[in-house]
């Protein structure tokens, strides 16, 4: 007796398992059969140690099953009773179902923004309500609040630091700031610590500044910072902001004849600051 089998594989990173979805020739390839096997069982040479999934569901054509890796969900459709069901990919428990013959299609997607509210700790009144835009179909690694700063990190994206007072947005390159396993916020020092593997890093929210002081008295005569309306001559065709120009300065020179300050940063850009 010949048994024809077709199947595809899905790696479930939520619980380190391999899901197979198969159709059999004995059923005219019309019904989907799902099974999960933990990776550790496969490594032990025990591929039969898994168990079937969604046995109570009628997944005959045109029924289907879809796996949403981004949101950690499974969507099934039973054509027999026109019912969509959403399951949790971690433990395959049923979350909710949608039964409506008028529904033609369901799409699972990640929201393009996250709604946020800032409440008064004293009486709970809403001080500010806003939405922060997200990159579509990218997992949110974390959203942390530190005083007036909001830290948002998505998988494979730059760290975003939003000042909720004026909505000024600062980004830190994903190559410099990788998602940590834990945070410690030092509120009095306006610093925060990140822990990743065996490394600890210290971060602050301050952009750089250039201070001009008197040699005789040490008194600060002038300050160049990101909030200043100072005259900045852009370097060639690069049109970056004042805050960006003050980041990671590697060289500084003062021209007494022209009364100008020249700075260079790690990006290889030279900026001229004139009075």
From TrEMBL:
SUPFAM superfamilies: WD40 repeat-like. InterPro entries: DUF7899 (IPR057221), WD40_repeat_dom_sf (IPR036322). This is Transducin/WD40 repeat-like superfamily protein. It comes from Eleusine coracana subsp. coracana.
């Amino acid at each position: 007796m010949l048994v024809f089998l077709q199947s595809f594989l899905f790696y479930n990173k939520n619980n380190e398992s391999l899901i197979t979805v198969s159709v059999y020739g004995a059923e005219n390839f019309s019904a989907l059969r799902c099974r999960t096997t933990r990776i550790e069982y496969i490594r032990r040479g025990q591929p039969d140690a898994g168990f079937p999934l969604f046995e109570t569901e009628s997944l005959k054509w045109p029924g289907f099953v879809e796996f949403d890796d981004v949101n950690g969900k499974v969507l099934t459709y039973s054509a027999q009773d026109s019912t969509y069901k959403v399951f949790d990919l971690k433990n395959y428990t049923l979350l909710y179902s949608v039964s409506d013959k008028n529904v033609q299609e369901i799409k699972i997607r990640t929201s393009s923004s996250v709604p946020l509210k800032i409440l008064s700790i004293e009486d709970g009144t809403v001080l500010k309500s806003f939405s922060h835009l997200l990159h579509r179909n990218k997992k949110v690694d974390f959203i942390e609040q530190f005083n007036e700063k909001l830290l948002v990190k998505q998988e494979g994206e730059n760290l975003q630091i939003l000042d909720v007072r004026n909505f000024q947005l600062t980004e830190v390159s994903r190559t410099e700031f990788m998602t940590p396993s834990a945070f410690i916020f030092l509120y009095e020092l306006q610093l925060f610590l990140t822990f990743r593997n065996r490394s600890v890093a210290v971060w602050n929210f301050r952009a750089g500044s250039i201070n001009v002081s008197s040699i005789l008295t040490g008194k600060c005569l002038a300050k160049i910072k990101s909030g200043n309306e100072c005259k900045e001559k852009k370097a060639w065709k690069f049109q970056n902001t004042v805050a960006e120009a003050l980041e990671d300065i590697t060289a500084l020179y003062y021209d007494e004849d022209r009364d100008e300050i020249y700075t260079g940063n790690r990006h290889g850009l030279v900026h001229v600051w004139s009075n």
